[in-house]
Structures are given as C-alpha cells and as structure tokens.
Input
Amino acid sequence: MKLKSFNSGSYTQQYQYRSFTPTPINRPFDWDDPNIDVLLEDATRLIGELNAYSKLIPDVDFFISMHIVKEATTSSRIEGTQTNVREAVLPEEEIAQERRDDWLEVQNYVKAMNHAIAALERLPLSIRLLREAHKTLMSGVRGEHRNPGEIRKSQNWIGGSSLRDAIFIPPSHQEVPDLLSDLEKFWHNDQLAIPHLIRTALSHYQFETIHPFLDGNGRIGRVLITLYLIDKGLLVKPTLYLSDFFERNKGAYYDALTAVRASNNIEHWIKFFLTGVAETAANSKQTFEKIVELRHVFEGKILQLGKRNPKGQALLRHLFSQPALTANRIAAKLQITHQSASSLIRAFEEMGILQEASGRKKDRLFVFSDYLRLFASRGQIRLPKA
Output
C-alpha cells in the first residue's frame, strides 16, 4: 500500500457517540515522497553516530540512568505532571507533600522503563511486556484504580469531560484485542520490507489510536518507541528518548497524530517522527560529549586527593547515576565511615563538584549541579574549567 493512499480507519456508531476503528497495519507500505527517504537516511545516520559514541564511553550505563530520569519527567510532563529533573533525583523525604503524587508518577515511569528494558533480554517486544510496564507505571499512584496492567474492558476517550464532548473516542473495547494482535504481528513480520524507523512511527501512531488502557496510554506509547528500537537492534544501548522533542513540540505532536485520523495523512506524521528521531539523536550525542568533558574535568581535580583518589573516583561514578546524596548514603555506597564521607564531601564542595541543597545542619543533601544542568536545560551549559 502507498502511504499516500493510506486509509486510517472508520467511525462506528455506538450508543450516543461514534468511536474510531483504525485500519490494521500488518501489511506492506511504500511511498513516493523523497523527503521521507532523506529524513530516514538522516535519522538512521545520527542513531548510528549515537550508538558508536555510547560504545566508546566507559561506564556508559551510569549516564544512561539519568537519560531515563529525564525521559520519565518529560513524558510525564506531557500528561500534566510537574516534577522536574532536579526533583526526580531527590529522595522522597525531600519532596514537599503537595508534590509527591507527581514525584511518585515519575519514579514509577523510571521503574517501568528499567523493568521493560531488562525484560527485553528474555522476552521479545510484546503486548505482554507493555502490560507489565503499564502495571508498574500505574501501581500506587493516581490512576491505580484504573486496572493497571489490564487491557480495558470499557470505552475510554481523549479530551473533554465525558463521551459527549470528547475530542477523540478510540475503538470499542471489543475491538481492542484483535487490533493489538495485529500490531504485535506487525512488529515481528519479517516478510514486510519496511525500515524499522518507519515501523516505529506507524506503531506509535497505531498504539495511541487504539488506546488500549484506561489511563497511561501516552506514556506507555512513548516507552514503546525506545523498546522497539532496542528490540530490533537499532539502539545498542537505551540512549534515545523522544519525549523531550514531543514536549517541546506538543501542539505539532498532537496535530500530527490527529491529522492521520482526520485526513489519512500518515506521511506528515512519519516525517514529523523522523525529524524528532534525528534531532533527539543529535542532542543525545551532544549531551554525552558534554558528560565526557565534564567527567574529564572533575577526574583531573580529584587526582589532587592523593590517597583518597580511589574513593573520590568511585563517588564521582556514583554521582553520574545518582546526583543527589547525603553523607549517610555516600558512606553506605563507598563502605566508609560517616566521618570519611563528610571529609570527601567537603573536598568535593571545594572542587565545585557538589553543592549543599537542603539548607539543613544535619543530614544535609548534596547535589551534582553541573551534571543536572545538562539534562534540565537540554545540554546548554558552560562547563567548569579544568
């Protein structure tokens, strides 16, 4: 099928409303628009550069954890959650009571993503895996009573206060199992000569249109993007997350998805998606470059610690995955006394690595601010001098 002649689906009259049934997508697709080819080539090249860079960085998994935290905060922010990256790395007791619901949702997102990535080592990408991720995402937070991990058995809607004034009404719950089965077959149909980035774009659109859960569909649909790229080997490490691009272009993101359902314009969505992949891959590589430079600067400063240098280097590595710590936590991680941890913290403060953030006299909290700024401001920071 030519993408130009794509039929997105049809409306079905239900009681007092019409639901939208998307066309199954487990079929061949091709296109004549050369702009798609150019964007596809650019996105594939930049993912390749990102992969090469992530292979070369020692201890890259320390840095990936913060990429997942940023993805969790940004994807959740698209849905209205207000927690930022700096808050997301803090322990729960440091979060104001009125902000803990948002904080917990972000923590669940991190757990869901980490669990799903780990599960890919023993399971192929599947609806079962997404259900597991959804259960983790929704358990113990707002929406926990909306059947975490279960495919919906009732009608849901997008926008508005009810079915009567909804902006979009997904397919009836009776249709969802067959549509999800078709989507899962599409992921693993080796007979289809469709590049995986195009399949990812089509999969995200189809998942969001099916809207298989009562809540959390947007976040799980964005988790799906990274999981698909890992499952198919396009990403050697989980280093690409599109939520930042979607959040910065939120109106265009929703408009592009809506345009497919309203006017069958799947090509516009694919071009928007590929643009996001290319931009995100380039930004992710730039962030890694800044991390390496930051690490080089501070490793050089830590050499001044003499006998404490090994513990100092170990603490720096921990800070790249957990950039907010107390003396007690540092002592436990490094297996040193509280006094030694406090001494190391003072040295890190003098070198400009750690800053006190709690304002307390006891059990003070210290943060790796220069590192956090890489993620809070999309990599646009001035690095400290060596």
